[in-house]
Give the backbone structure.
Amino acid sequence: MKDIFKFSQQPKFENPSLIVGWNKDAGQLSPRVIEYLNKKINGRSFCDIEPVDFFSLVGVAVEKDIAQFPEGKFYYCEKSDLVIFKGSEPEFERYRFLDAVSDLAQHHCRIKHLYTINSTISSIAHTNSRKIFAVFNKTEFQKELRGYDLEDMNWQGTPAISSYLLWVAQRKDIPGVSLWTQIPFYLAAGEDFQAIKQTLSFLDNRFNLELDLKDMDEQTQSQNAKIDQLRQEDTEINRCIGALESGLSLSEEEQLGLIKAVSEFLEFGKS
Amino acid sequence: MAVKFYKEPELENSIMFCGWPGIGNIGILAIDTLKGLLRAQEFGEIEPWDFFDPYSVSIEKGLLKSLEFPSNKFYFQRIKDRDLLFFIGQQQPSELGTRYAQGQKAYQMANLVLDVAEKFGCRRVYTSGAAVTKIHHTAKPRVWAVPNNQNLAKEIKQYQNTILMSEIEGRGDQGAITGLNGLLLGVARKRGLEAVCLMGEIPYYLQAAPWPYPKASKSVLEVITGILGLKVDLSAMEELGQKIEQQIEDFLESLYNTEAIPPEVRDEIEKLRYIEPTELGPITEEEQKKIMEHIDELFDQGGRTDERHL
């Protein structure tokens, strides 16, 4: 483990929960939730994962003009007794990576629960409320979180990294849940502030963080106002969003048109 | 990185047969069929997560039910006082995203398989795969055999419908075996363990086809059952072979009719219909290039979905 991890501090943990977020996610949900949370609760970095075994490192990727580099960082907030992990999805040795993350969380931090933060792209309108779907690795933990307005997920298909982590945690007897907050498909390329807020609200309730989420409300209102303007200017877009609001589905062509129009109007990819 | 055993059968002087997906799934189809016909019992598996990513998750009513990985299982059976071991891998491990095993993971897996072979008294290992060559799909495929020591070559010459590299026109005694089939031969040689790779011939224009090639698997199986002195019913594989052959005929006919491939490639393929396999040399680089440019591209468009399901 010492080859993989580089410790910068040795905080004393109580009995924390671990919240895991990934650097890439639809609607930027996972990274934004983690960044916001870290900032609000003053999470301090205490450990880094050395990338060499898990990423190709043939150079650096440049995204939105900025050079990127794979990261995997643990943070701790003593006051709220939360450990936060924010990382890039490993390209290689995924099992070893997840095994190491959960090992450190279990044996070094002595976590009691694992939470992963993710979005799920849905055929809903931005004006609809966002549901949070949940996947648990233990029935007892599922029962414990009844009353938090989580929806049970049903799914069979290719596993995401969070499902893989949840499975690794299950093998180590760590109770865990993957949270999947809905994102309207036409906001997936940008940021969905309402979904980010919804997820933060859940964490706020669960951990009594007393977060002030007014700024999230403001950003949601501002984004919604811009989309309203687009609806007024473009009757076809208004019809498509109206159909989604009524629970109707759109054709593939209509969906692509809506994604293109909203992305261009909100200038996704330019910020 | 471990092997998990459900039971530990007491075996002596066993022979191991290994099958993995590859071109035409010739090896895995042959070995898996034999395993099924002999009703071999599963007794262990290589834990997959160090080698493969999961390919499916099952979530029901908010609960994680299972995560599925490509399996790598061991089976055994005693037939006529002879102990047989089988290893069936659903995928070849690779670190570089290639279709065939290579790199450290492949070497580790080859060693794990041979650890099990030696633990259960194995004295010889057979692997199986494809020999891509100039043969027509209506011809009976021969089996190319590559042993990992000189002493085995003499024995191989007694096998029916089987040839050594040196007997193939124009090839000399040179060649290469990609993936785990080759690697296992080499690692076995390093350990002083006998190993032979049996490769069923497949037409070079079908090397990227998404279908299995049961005719070649059947040829391999005939050789193996001959070695073991077994009589098994291969009629199901014969039928499957005929069905696939018809599918290939129809597919090529549609390519000829729509002129999806140039006439010279069609002529090359059709010329093979009337030539005995023994008269054919290896594929030249030029032929390989033509195929890559025309037919492989057509197959690639359709994807390669067969391998995981086998």
About this structure: The longest strand of chain B covers residues 122-133. The two ends of chain B are 24 Å apart (CA to CA).
